[in-house]
Design a protein that fits this description.
Elements lengths: L2 E2 L11 E7 L9 E4 L14 E11 L4 E10 L3 H7 L7
């Protein structure tokens, strides 16, 4: 069972082994994404807009795990609206 951490937790990124992200259910089969790459700070890349609640399980090299949860918001630029269709960004 993972501990619940507030904010970034009591650990540094150098202590992290893996981060498993749980995205919004609308991501379907891609809802769970894993990153084990320290050189990019365990980043994942997705294309989305709007906001949703994201969850992440941070697994440290010593085996401890922390569950993080928070709201993420992705603004849409005018260039993205022009490229992907303005009506797609109306909610």
């Amino acid at each position: 069972m993972a501990e619940t951490a507030v904010g970034r937790g009591d650990f540094s990124l150098d202590e992290v082994s893996t981060v498993i992200y749980e995205l919004d259910p609308s991501f379907g089969d891609s809802r769970f994404q894993k990153s084990s790459t320290r050189r990019n700070d365990f980043e994942i890349r997705i294309w989305t807009y709007g906001w949703f609640i994201i969850k992440a399980t941070v697994i440290l090299k010593n085996g401890r795990a922390y569950d993080l949860r928070g709201k993420v918001e992705f603004p849409v630029s005018d260039q993205e609206k022009a490229k992907n269709g303005r009506e797609q960004f109306t909610w």
